[in-house]
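Hey, can you fold this one?
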Amino acid sequence: MRPSKEELASAAGRTIPDVVGPGLAVLFCGINPGLYSAATGHHFARPGNRFWPALHRSGFTPRQLAPAEQDELLAYGLGITNVAARATARADELTRDELVAGAEVLAEKVARWRPRWLAVVGVTAYRIGFGRPGATFGRQAEALGRTGLWVLPNPSGLNAHYTVDTLADAFARLRAAQVSSG
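Sure. Predicted structure:
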């Protein structure tokens, strides 16, 4: 069921649990939960978000999962977290300090769970949070310990520069690197 306007409004500031566990090949990292995701408790839940179709079309999952099936990702060696935990209507509502603090918390999660790859979906959040103003999409030169860093385009429907197919191509490049390093 779709959340009501009241449920969406009351979701501001909420957090949702990470989908994490040991032995992850890739830990996908959103910028922060949107209100729809916070209201439902599922990552990338808003209709029109292209994360789930891109994940499937790139070969990470054998079928397209629904946001409510997010826990099934663990069986594929995949997880989800966010740079900033606080739900907002738009990612640009986050402050620079929130993104920097979130990147520090994210580094702690990576140290704990030790995924092979951390894939941040949002180059601007990555640039600000990790202090890498010149970062571009793809594999990053630096790593977090033994975890490789990859930056993907944001799959939000608000990111009109990318279609599901171009997002799937970007995700597929990560998948190829993950398989070859794996």
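The first strand starts at residue 26 and ends at 30. Let me know if you want another pass with a different chain boundary.
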